[in-house]
Write a structure and sequence with these properties.
This is L-ascorbate oxidase homolog isoform X1. Keywords: Glycoprotein, Signal. GO terms for molecular function: copper ion binding; oxidoreductase activity. InterPro entries: Cu-oxidase-like_N, Cu-oxidase_2nd, Cu-oxidase_C, Cu-oxidase_fam, Cupredoxin, CuRO_2_AO-like. Helix content is 5%, strand content 37%. It is mostly beta strands. Strand 23 and strand 24 form a beta hairpin. It starts with 7 loop residues before the first strand and ends in a 33-residue tail after the last strand. The N terminus is likely disordered.
Length: 553
């Protein structure tokens, strides 16, 4: 019958159902967020579970799927999840950060509904409220290619998700109190691989199994709080094939530095003697190295893993050189049939340059982190909702932060206020992240992928553009900045919405090292941005206001 939409529901694991409609397929999930007690490092502690799982359930989707997740908040604090790397085209309403969404209050639920439009790749989700990320609530989110689109490698025997974390035995509330009292986080107590650390006593269950001579895909993501983690597998090399949504030139690595918030996909072939092998994740750039282990078992295995461990590299020059080896695969197709390299980003004129310098202040006993001297504070009403309801002027001013910081910004007084940049729709923008501090930085941009065209030591000047990779820089969502160094990214702001640019070092984001890019379509048209969803949670100034006129086509 014309105009009738049919739906078939099939039960899936992790509280999920699959719906098949006349449009792109739907995946339905019901998630119950609770506290639980686990001992990831041998000490009982409170963790955040999703459907009693730690890490949370793995979302297994395909390009253009619609994902519907009903999140029930059964912890005692307001809670939000973000889907890091999912571009939420025209739909920042689903981004799950405090600038776009009111948090889900205890004892209530909220249903996220978003489409993984024109994307493939390996991503993570995690909480954005308070220091919840330090307690759990994170997990893997994969987007498989559609069957019609060729992938530049043979189908693996199986596809595994590896979530890495630095980990604290203190509760998230204790860590939050520490930060609120003006202190910073000390080094972590350990490292976890999929929520565990193998003891090496012969009683460890394997995290993964491999059949001899078969090739497996491992999606490796760092969902931690502050430490770069070096990942390696005893006796095996890794062929890098994908990074945060882009197929890459397939170089082979003995180990990979995974900076906070980043995800890599590698192929590993079971071509060694049949026994157990350790996968390992070690902290980098710290005097004391902390390492987690997990077991990979050959199905015909005959013996324990060797006690001889491959060492992690030392120093960040090695890591910088590894970044320089990453290249976009120009001939492969990602979510669409056309090759990735058909988009010639290097020939587009830059219309705006924004240089962001991070700094820290302990003035008045309060610890704050800032970008260009502004430390972001989330108002009670999310910025995006205030903008939509026409009350933004009561909460924040646009462009209070300069595009280029003053010369002595590292020592300048920090101002704490909402930090919102007004970005012109469809402009091609250059963003420089400059790090004058001795610590690593890692930045993520919601709503987009960008071209990471340079990461270099020293300070940035316009002459440095001569050294940009304008041919095959990887299109990705997260970029690291080494101590006393800078990074440059290029992108077109063609996705209308309110988008978070944040430090992935979570204590820094929590204490203000983030901002929002407001990208408004002058047409106020549904072609550019969706209307506010009917189920949007309202809070603060807009709670009792009448709904604005919706956008039209």
């Amino acid at each position: 019958m014309a105009g009738v939409m049919f739906m078939v529901l099939l039960c899936l694991s992790a509280g999920a159902m699959l719906g098949v409609q006349g449009e792109d397929p739907y995946l339905f999930f019901t998630w119950n967020v609770t506290y639980g007690t686990l001992s990831p490092l041998g000490v009982p502690q409170q963790v955040i579970l999703i459907n009693d799982q730690f890490p949370g359930p793995n979302i297994n989707s395909t390009s253009n799927n619609n994902i519907v997740i009903n999140v029930f908040n059964n912890i005692d604090e307001p809670f939000l999840l973000t889907w890091s790397g999912i571009q939420q085209r025209k739909n920042s309403w689903q981004d799950g950060v405090l600038g776009t969404n009111c948090p889900i209050l205890p004892g209530t639920n909220f249903t996220y509904h978003f489409q993984v439009k024109d994307q493939i790749g390996s991503y993570i989700y995690y909480p954005t409220t308070g220091m919840h990320r330090a307690a759990g609530g994170f997990g893997g989110l994969r987007i498989n290619s559609r069957l019609l689109i060729p992938v530049p490698y043979a189908d693996p025997e199986d596809d595994y998700t590896v979530v890495l974390n630095d980990w604290y035995t203190k509760s998230h509330t204790a860590l939050q109190k520490l930060l609120d009292s003006g202190r910073s986080l000390a080094r972590p107590d350990g490292v976890l691989i999929n929520g565990k650390n193998a003891m090496g006593d012969g009683k460890d269950e394997p995290l993964f199994t491999m059949k001899p001579e078969k090739t497996y895909k491992y999606r490796i993501c760092n969902a931690g709080l502050k430490n770069t983690l070096n990942f390696r597998i005893q006796g095996h090399t890794m062929k890098l094939v994908e990074m945060e949504g882009s197929h890459v030139v397939q170089n082979v690595y003995e180990s990979l530095d995974v900076h906070v918030g980043q995800c890599f996909s590698v192929l590993v072939t079971a071509n060694q003697a049949p026994k157990d092998y350790y996968m390992m994740a070690s902290t980098r750039f710290n005097k004391q190295v902390l390492t987690a282990k997990g077991i990979i078992r050959y199905t015909n295995g005959k013996g324990p893993a060797s006690p001889e461990f491959p060492e992690a590299p030392v120093g960040w020059a090695w890591s910088l050189n590894q970044f320089r080896s990453f290249r976009w695969n120009l001939t492969a197709s990602a979510a669409r049939p056309n090759p990735q390299g058909s988009y010639h980003y290097g020939s587009i004129n830059i219309t705006r340059t924004i240089k962001l310098v991070n700094s820290a202040s302990r003035e008045g006993g309060k610890l704050r982190y800032a970008l260009n001297g502004v430390s972001h504070v989330d108002p009670e009403t999310p910025l995006k909702i205030a903008e939509y309801y026409g009350v933004a002027d009561k909460l924040f001013k646009y462009d209070t932060m300069q595009d280029s910081p003053q010369a002595n910004i590292a020592h300048a007084k920090i101002v704490s206020q909402p930090n919102v940049l007004n970005l012109t729709f469809r402009n091609f923008v250059e963003i420089i992240f400059e790090n004058h501090e001795k610590s690593m930085q890692s930045y993520h941009l919601d709503g987009y992928s960008f071209f990471a065209v340079a990461v270099e030591p020293g300070t940035w000047t316009p002459e440095k553009r001569k050294h940009y990779n304008l041919l095959d820089a990887v299109s990705r969502t997260t970029v690291q900045v080494f101590p006393k160094s800078w990074a440059a990214i290029l992108l077109t702001f063609d996705n209308a919405g309110m988008w978070n640019i944040r430090s992935e070092m979570w204590e820094r984001a929590y204490l203000g090292q983030q901002l929002y890019a407001s990208v408004l379509s002058p047409a106020r048209s549904l072609r550019d941005e969706y209307n506010i969803p009917d189920n949007t949670l309202l809070c603060g100034l807009v709670k009792d206001l009448p709904k604005p006129e919706p956008y039209s086509v």
